Amino acid sequence: MTRRALLACSALALTLPVATPADWSRFRGPNGTGTAEGEMPAINPKAPLWKAAVPGRGAGSPIVVGGKVYLQTAAADGSKRSLLCLDAATGATVWTKDADGAAAHTHAKNTLASSTPACDGKQVYAVWWDGSGVSVYGYDLTGAEKWRTSLGGYKSQHGPGFSPVVHEGLVFVNVDDDERAELVAVDARTGAKKWVKERKHVRACYSTPFLLTREGKPAELILGTTTAITSYEPATGKVNWNYDVVWPKGKMPLRVIAHPVYAGGLLVMTSGDGGGSRYMVAVDPDQKAPAKVWELSKEIPYVPCLLARGDLLFWIGDNKGSFACCADAKTGKVLFNERLLAKEPSASPVMVGDKILMIAEDGEFVVFKAAPKFDEVERAKLADKEKVFASPAVADGKLFIRGESHLYCFGKK
Fold first, then answer.
1. H helix intervals, 90-183
2. Which is higher by pLDDT, 31 or 12?
3. CA 88 distance to own-chain centroid
4. Is the per-residue pLDDT at 15 higher than 50?
5. Can you give the pLDDT at residue 148?
6. In sequence order, what E strands does 275-397 have?
7. How far is it, in rounded angstroms, from Cα 348 to Cα 345?
8. Would you state the pLDDT for residue 21?
9. Residue 76 CB: number of other CB atoms within 10 A?
10. Over the stretch 151-206, which tens digit does the pLDDT of each residue have?
11. Measuring CA to CA, which residue among 267, 269, 270 is closest to residue 278?
């Protein structure tokens, strides 16, 4: 290849969109941590930067990549599913891509479009349930469908709610319903299945995998469900290590919705069920046979994900109201437990800089310091009495909150 051709290719590569650290490219943002750098955007419920109507119903979170917002929704009658692309600066619709669907049963707090898409700056990846089976789709940034891959039938008393993750050319999907459990890797360019790993099945789980990256060690794909926390080699699906979750005799195994987090050198996973049972376990992945370090069974979240800041763990409880907790990640010692709101949250909290935002299902929110002592900064409620079930997104200094029928953007212009 000539020098001129090389320069032309280099210039073209520089113009292609790529996901940046300022983007929020998957469920819970950068690698699923739920965190962003900078300052918490100002939240004036009466004066958002913009508010855009979102058709149909959905509980999936928005993602933000390259100045565009992507989110999924479903027609109220279940006849179709839609991937929306909005301008992040104005909220204007850029394009909409529809997929076939049918009405089907879900939990009262779930919807037919509760997945969050993922984007690598080249394509957008979305998981759709058509009412009987699930598939993962690949779209280019103009909304053109490039491929679709069936992941088989899907049966769950609650409906689906799992989301894809993309890493180094592979899209990972945890398909765990009432009858089977599989972790699937799909080629991001072609949609071809690269590997499928069966997992021991007990109860449907909706947890999203994440990449554990540590200096001097290869990346590990981590997945936690009712039965185990497992580390896989991302490219091949080879199991690096596995920790079996042991449930006491007579105790019902609990469902995992929130994925594990890495804090204080440990992997921490929560589980629960609608009856109020809760369980949190911390595992040391560096032992020859990863083993439990500590566990908790009270004041634990079921649906919302955890946050980590150094050796501190933060979480929002969702049982008979909402509460904020902080614990030492290395020991599990609870440092504070503060009752906040009368309504429970379904949305996971987000942390921007040293502040944490939690929002309850009725739209009331609280911002507090990410510190070992509880320090409330502000609280208010979204206008329009709009309910919130989706986790917020933070990108480019702006906060995006999806309500039942609108997407709100807060922050500076």
1. none
2. 31
3. 19
4. no
5. 97
6. 278-284, 291-296, 307-309, 312-317, 322-328, 334-341, 350-352, 355-359, 364-369, 376-381, 393-395
7. 8
8. 56
9. 12
10. 999 998 888 899 999 999 999 999 999 999 999 999 999 999 999 999 999 999 99
11. 270
Tokens at 300, concatenated: 């634990």
Looking up tokens 């310091």 gives 369
Residue 52 pLDDT level (bands cut at 50, 70, 90): very high
Q: Which residue matches tokens 């009495």?
A: 385
- Inform me whether the pLDDT recorded for 14 exceeds 70: no
What is the pairing mode between strands 278-284 and 376-381? unpaired
DSSP one-letter code for 10: H
Q: How many CA atoms lie within 13 A of 277 on its CB side?
A: 11
**If residue 147 lies in a helix (H) or strand (E), which one and from where to where?**
strand 145-153
> How many residues are recorded in the chain?
413
- The stretch 195-218 carries a mean pLDDT of 95
For residue 115, give the nearest of 144, 87, 167, 156 by alpha carbon: 156
Identify whether the C-beta of residue 358 lies closer than 8 Å to the C-beta of residue 380.
Answer: no
Nearest to 139 by CA among 188, 103, 183, 92: 188
Q: Dihedral (C-alpha) 385, 390, 391, 395: value to the nearest 10 degrees?
A: -90
CA atoms within 13 A on the CB side of 85: 21
**Token output for 362:** 């009725």
CA distance 96 to 33: 28
Tokens of 160: 């689906």
233 closest CA partner among 272, 194, 176, 202: 194
How far is Cα 259 from Cα 164, in angstroms, rounded to an integer?
13
What domains are defined for the chain?
Answer: 17-411 (2.130.10.10)
- How far apart CA 113 and CA 408 sit, in angstroms, is 18
Determine the distance from the C-alpha atom of residue 176 to the mean position of all C-alpha atoms in its chain, rounded to a whole number. 16
Q: Identify the burial level of 342 via C-beta atoms within 10 angstroms of its C-beta, where 0-12 means exposed, 13-18 middle and 19 or more buried.
A: exposed
Q: What are phi and psi of 165, to 5 degrees?
A: -135, 140
Run of H or E residues at 13: helix 3-15
Distance CA 271, CA 11 (A): 48
